[in-house]
Each structure stands twice: as C-alpha cells, then as structure tokens.
Design brief:
CATH class of chain B: Alpha Beta
Helix content of chain A: 40-55%
Shape of chain A: globular
Radius of gyration of chain A: 22 Å
CATH architecture of chain B: 3-Layer(aba) Sandwich
Structural class of chain B: alpha/beta
Strand order of the largest sheet of chain B: 2-1-3-4-6-5-7-8
Number of domains of chain A: 3
CATH superfamily of chain B: Thiamin diphosphate (ThDP)-binding fold, Pyr/PP domains
Largest sheet of chain A: 7 strands, mixed
CATH class of the largest domain in chain A: Alpha Beta
Order of helices and strands of chain B: HEHEHEHHEHEHEHHEEHH
Structural class of chain A: alpha/beta
CATH topology of the largest domain in chain A: Rossmann fold
Number of strands of chain B: 8
Radius of gyration of chain B: 19 Å
Distance between the termini of chain A: 35 Å
Strand order of the largest sheet of chain A: 3-2-4-5-7-6-13
Largest interface: A-B, 46 and 47 residues
Number of helices of chain B: 11
CATH superfamily of the largest domain in chain A: Thiamin diphosphate (ThDP)-binding fold, Pyr/PP domains
CATH architecture of the largest domain in chain A: 3-Layer(aba) Sandwich
Number of helices of chain A: 15
Oligomer: heterodimer
Strand content of chain B: 5-15%
Strand content of chain A: 15-25%
C-alpha cells in the first residue's frame, strides 16, 4: 500500500507488521512519534497480545527487552542520542547474551552542548558493541530494513539497530510502500529462540566467565557479526524476490564505473550526494558514490572491491572522533590497505547543519585539485573559532564556550542552520 | 494463608513446633519434595546469610508456584558464588544480566509471559542491597510504579560485600566498611544517611511489602509463599548477616540476625497497598550492645572508653522502630503470639 506518510509512522506500521510481543520505550526526541504510534496500535489490539511498557529510563527499556527476549518474546524499542548512551551497559549485555532485539535509532547528536538535531554521533559511539547496524537512506528503506532486521536478528541471535537520520527521515513525509501482513508473514517466521527461560527445561543464562573461556565467548560474538555479512546479502536478494524492490544490502554503488573520485557516506545524505554526482558527471567529471548500508559488521571486502579502482575516496561522515578525526574514514582506510587510493575525511552535518550541494561542489573541487585539508570540516566557520580561541586566551575564567559561540553567530540554540 | 503459630517455650525455636502445625503450614525445607533450587556446591562463604536466605526463599517460591518459577539475578555475591562458568547451582531457569537492571529484566520476563498467555509461570528477581537500594533503584521504582508482576527479594547485608565491603545506601550508622573506615572523630558510617527501602516500596502503594530475616526462616517462607501467590509488584527485604563484611564468627549468623530483631533494629512486618498489616512482636527487648558487640564492624564503639553517645544513638533508632511498629505491646510478653 503506497502512502504519503511520516517516516516515524511508517516505521511504526512496519514494526507492527513484524508482530512484536514486547515493546518497551522511553521517550526522546526524535524517536517519540514512532513509540507513540506503537502504543496506540497496541492499545487498539492491532498487534495481537503485544505488551507495551513505558520504562523509567532507556536503560530500563532495553533491560526489559533483555528479560522479554530471554523469555522467548520478539522485542522492539527505539531511542536516540543521550538515550542510547544511557542504555550503553544494556546494549553490550544484549549482544553478549545473544538476544535478538531490534532497536530503531533516530540518529541525533550527543551533548554537551545539548542538541536535538541529526548526526551519527550516537550510533557511532556504540559501533563496536556487538549490534548489527543498518543505515537507512530513505523512509522506504527504513520500513524495509525493519522487516529485514527482525529476520536477521533472529536468524543470528544477534540484536540489530536500524539507524535513520533524526528529523531528516523520522519527521519527513514521503511516499512509502507499506508491505502487506501476508508479505511480512511469508518473509518473517515466528521467533524460535536458541535459549529460553523455561521451567520445563531450566537453564542458567548469564554465568560469570573467567580468563579460561572469555576470549572464546567474545570471538563467537564476533563470528556472529562476520556471518551477518553473508546473511545481509542473502536477505537483500530474498527481499527483492518477495517484495519486488531492492532494499538493504551491505553497500550500494552509484555511477562508480570508471570513477576517479568516489564519495562515501551513510544514510540520507546519499540523496544529495547522488544529485552532486549527476551534475558533475554532466560536466564531464569522472565521479561516483558509495553508500554504506551495513556499518556493523563493516563490509571490508565489499568496500575494497567497490573503491579499489578509484584514485580518491572522499568519506563524508556525520560524526567526529574527538582528538582523531574520522571514524568511517578509518574503516575505509583499513578496507583499502595496500592500495594506492587517497582516502579523505570530510566531517559534515554535525548537530544538524545542512550539507548543501554548493558546499559539496566546492569541497570536491578542492579535493580534485589536491588542496583539501585532512580531515576537512565542511562549512566550519573558522572566523568564529579564531575569535573564541583568542577570547579564551585573554583570561582564565573565560566562561562557557557554547554560549559565547552562539553570541558570536548572533543566533539562538533553537534556530536551525 | 492464615499464619498458624506454635508456642514452644523451652527452646524458643520453631523446629520442634513444625510437627505440630497443619500439613500446609509446615516448613518447606522440612519436606521431602523441597526442590533444592539453589543446590549444594556453590562458593558462598561459611555462615553466609544470603545463601541461606536465598535457598529458603526460592524453594518456598517454587512450592507456591507449583515449581513454575523463573529467577532473574542482579550482579553480586549471590550471582558470583552460584554460577562460576561452566557450573551452576541453580536448578531453575535463571538469568543474570547486569548489576542495576534486575527489576527491569524481570519485568520483561513477566511481560513476555503475559504476551504469550503463560499465567502459570511466576517471576522472582533478587539482588543484594547495593543492587537494590543504590544502582538498581531506578529500575526497581519503575517496576513498582508500573505494578509489574514480579516478586523482588533484596538480600540486605548492609554493604557491597562482593567487591570487598564498601558502603551502600543500606549500611547502618557507625558501621565500619572499607569506604567508611573506623577512623577520625566520627568513625564508621555517618548518622542521618541511608534509605529505608521497605517504606519506599510501601510508598509506591504496591500490593505487598514485607521484611524477613534468616533468624525466622518459617516466617520468611510464609512471606515468600504469600508474596508468590499475589499478582503485581511485590517486595521482600531480607536481613542476611555477612560474616566476612561484619567480621563476626560464621557460627553466629542466626544469633546476630535474631538479635537484630530482638533489639528492634530490624523490625519484621508486612504491608499491603502501603499499609502495615502485621508485625512480629518482640518477646524480650534486648539492648543494642548485645547485637553490636559480636561484630567487628562495630568494634570501635567498644574501646576504652566506649562510644556511649554513639551506642545511645543506635539504641534510640531501635526504640523508635519499637514505637513505630508497636513491637512491644503492653501486657504482651510472648513474642510468638
């Protein structure tokens, strides 16, 4: 069914079609519309006997899912930003125990300074926590990835995050094809747990493990991630067959044949990047783009194969490893080790700053001329930075940085750039 | 379940009295069909109050649930000593997730059972005082407030024993721990601190709250049995001495637990929907020195000269409990009635 629908409403509808049995949530912008809609669907009896629990925190929400999943239920939650960090301990625990929950991340910046807008700092902070991380480019893909995520999680007994850009996707109205219940049921069989809290077959789950076995247990969790590399490709093909549209997969190439320069990115910015590629191609520039759909497990082989013929890979990423620079670009460099490809890092879109075509054109021109600094901060106002650094030099009690920067740009925090 | 009481004056024990009780009232541990849910071979210290309390509590919960029980455990001594990988002392389905989330995990188990229509299976969550009154408090309050169908048992030994005896929000005033050392002008844990979790649980208005002690195992079993048969959020706060952390002779675990009751320092009571509905009266009030003296954690109170003001302050706490819960009703000499 094709609808003009808000991203969050579409995701809620998709989750409902997956027949979850326990949903537990704690509200945080920009995830709220998803869980509000799900609570309504549960109340109206539209999701069978599903229980919806208003948790006292994100840590509680995911902990509730840990118990529910161990008791054999299909489980779902959604969060973002500070909420994801607050549940960090449970995030690692769910994957360590091999409990296949699905969690939507409405990607949002992390404070301080507090900021509700989109970047990828939140899911990046937990990239190595043992959860599969799938990034949606559009709301259609967000819907499709949720259907795939439950199947993937339960096949592997491994939890999955479906990452979608906060506001850019969660609050955007786009045409979305919602699958039918029959289609989803045919794709997603009932959950069959590999471990279960069952009085008829009592088992101890979550025992203490010492040095004699810990490395082996952790390796097996890593091994599950490696298996996901194959499973994601299998599901992509099966999804195409059963639903008639391409969604998901490890990577997606765009006009990379004979490309000298390839832009690499995650999530919704790939739409803008494709327009930039098209316009530059029209102007005779040999350029293409590569979307990374599965960020964890990181598709080293697929990325290497896609990028190895090019001269220059420019990773446009909405995150910043403080004290280092790029996160995704480090992974891309690892994938390309030994190859003569220049990998450049572009930190962009932090805290919801728009990534405009004009800025991308200028950045690409500089990169092609060999003049791009590394890492490059797209649209960073160096004048503001210099003034603030000078002000800090003047006296010890220089005050809070964020407020002074806001005063300089003559703005208020709620005004989106 | 009407609680039948047997008087057995000569020994002051309930053991012999057990045979005089109606069949349904007899103690679970004395039955052939007891489940030994926390089986022998675990690594608890000699004289561990928590191991004893957990064994009685879980076997009672098993009997009350017709052996349809799932347990969730917070990180702590009970978790560590019962499940050194790949061994386990648990003969029931048992899940350990984290230190601070046992109430939420148990709420999740209960939700899953409800979604699947499994009303026959009951859920118990358990943790120490650190996991309950401190790090797990947010999740516990959430579980209470939502009235999730979980029985939570706190084994209170008044400090973080598993990590080597550090202060918790349940450490009593004046007690020495490794982070409230017995040095300086006011040695030990400061007065005016700490949480009374049974009262906080009652403030949530949940169906059932009780205190219990390993000094009265029959009463402990009866409370767990009653709690297991109630639906909604239930809380039992159990007094469990720790010979290691309290620095007492392991043979004195029960004695010290009994002295805590008889001094009034640990009142035994039950509450339903926020109101106290029953308490165990004291047969013979004992001065707090009798309770404090055998414990190394209070040794600094009995130097030369003794810390009379501090001991008096602890006595005042005991007296206040006795007044609050009416533990010494006028004219009643027999605490068993």
């Amino acid at each position: 069914m094709r609808l003009q629908i808000e991203g969050s409403q579409a995701v809620a509808a998709a989750v409902a079609l997956c027949r979850p049995e326990v949903i537990s949530c704690y509200p945080i912008t920009p995830q709220t519309h998803i869980v509000e809609r799900l609570s309504e669907l549960v109340r109206n009896g539209k999701i069978g006997s599903c229980r919806f629990i208003n948790a006292e925190s994100e840590f509680g929400a995911l902990s509730i899912l840990i118990g529910a999943s161990a008791a054999g239920a299909r489980t779902y939650t959604a969060t973002a930003s500070q909420g994801l960090l607050f549940m960090t301990e449970a995030v690692y625990n769910a994957s360590g125990l091999g409990l296949p929950s699905v969690m939507t991340i409405g990607n949002r910046a992390i404070g301080a300074p507090i900021n509700i807008w989109n970047d990828h700092s939140d899911s990046m902070a937990l990239r190595d926590a043992g959860w599969i991380q799938l990034h949606a480019e559009s709301n259609q893909e967000a819907v499709d990835l949720h259907v795939q995520a439950f199947r993937l999680a339960e096949t592997l007994s491994c939890p999955v995050m479906v990452c979608m850009d906060g506001f850019v996707l969660t609050h955007a109205y786009e045409p979305v094809d919602l699958p039918t219940q029959e289609q989803v049921d045919a794709f997603l069989p009932p959950y069959e747990p590999v471990q279960l809290l069952d009085p008829d077959d009592p088992m101890t789950i979550g025992a203490m493990v010492g040095p004699e076995a810990f490395a082996e247990v952790r390796y097996l969790t890593h091994h599950t991630q490696l298996r996901a590399l194959e499973e994601i490709v299998t599901l992509e093909a099966e999804f195409l067959r059963q639903f008639g549209r391409a969604s998901g997969g490890l990577i997606e190439r765009y006009r990379t044949e004979d490309a000298e320069t390839i832009l690499v990115a995650l999530g919704s910015v790939n739409g803008t990047i494709r327009e930039v590629v098209d316009e530059l191609r029209d102007a005779g520039v040999a350029i293409g783009s590569l979307k990374i759909g599965a960020y964890r497990p990181f598709p080293v082989g697929a990325v290497r194969e896609a990028l190895h013929p090019c001269r220059r890979a420019i990773v446009v990423e909405k995150d910043l490893a403080l004290g280092k620079g790029g996160i995704v670009s480090s992974d891309v460099k690892m994938a390309l080790r030994g190859l003569p490809v220049i990998v450049q890092t572009v930190i962009a879109g932090l805290g919801g700053r728009s990534i405009t075509k004009a800025s991308l054109f200028q950045m690409i021109n500089e990169a092609r001329a060999g003049k791009l600094d590394e890492p490059h901060f797209l649209d960073l106002d160096w004048d503001v930075i210099r003034k603030e650094l000078a002000r800090r030099q003047q006296r010890r009690r220089s005050g809070p940085t964020a407020e002074h920067v806001l005063r300089q740009v003559n703005s208020v925090a709620s005004k989106m750039v | 379940m009407a609680d039948q009481r047997i008087k057995f004056y000569q020994t002051g024990t309930f053991t012999a009295g057990n045979r005089l009780l109606d069949e349904d009232q007899r103690t679970v541990q004395a039955r052939m069909e007891r489940t030994n849910s926390l089986d022998s071979g675990h690594r608890a210290c000699q004289g561990c109050g928590e191991a004893l309390g957990a064994r009685y509590a879980i076997d009672a919960a098993m009997r009350a649930s017709n052996n349809r029980l799932v347990a969730v455990n917070a990180t702590g001594c009970l978790e560590v000593f019962s499940t050194p990988y790949p061994e386990s002392s648990w003969k029931i389905p048992w899940l350990h997730s984290l230190f601070g989330n046992a109430p939420a995990v148990a709420a999740g188990v209960a939700a899953a059972l409800e979604a699947k229509g499994r009303s026959d299976v009951r859920v118990v969550a358990q943790g120490g005082d650190g996991g309950t009154v401190d790090i797990g408090f947010g999740c516990l309050s959430g579980m209470f407030e939502r009235n999730d169908d979980v029985l939570y048992i706190c084994y209170d030994n008044g400090a973080y024993m598993n990590t080597g005896v550090q202060r918790s929000g349940s450490t009593p005033p004046a007690a020495r721990t490794m982070t409230t050392p017995a040095v300086g002008p006011r040695p030990g844990n400061p007065f005016g601190t700490g949480k009374n979790l049974p009262r906080i649980a009652m403030a949530h208005g949940i169906p059932y709250v009780a205190t219990a002690s390993v000094a009265d195992l029959h009463d402990l079993e009866a409370k767990v049995t009653k709690a297991t048969r109630i639906r909604g959020a239930r809380y039992i706060h159990m007094f469990v001495p720790c010979p290691l952390g309290w620095a007492h002779d392991p043979a004195l675990t029960i004695t010290i637990a009994r002295l805590a009751i008889e001094t009034g320092l640990f009142p035994l009571f039950e509450a339903e929907h926020g109101r106290v509905v029953g308490r165990t009266t004291i047969r013979r009030k004992v001065p707090v020195e009798h309770y404090l003296k055998p414990q190394g954690r209070f040794k600094h109170l009995f130097g030369d000269p003794p810390a009379r003001e501090t001991i008096a302050a602890i006595q005042a706490m005991a007296d206040e409990n006795i007044a609050t819960y009416n533990l010494l009703p006028a004219g009643v000499e027999d605490g068993l009635s």
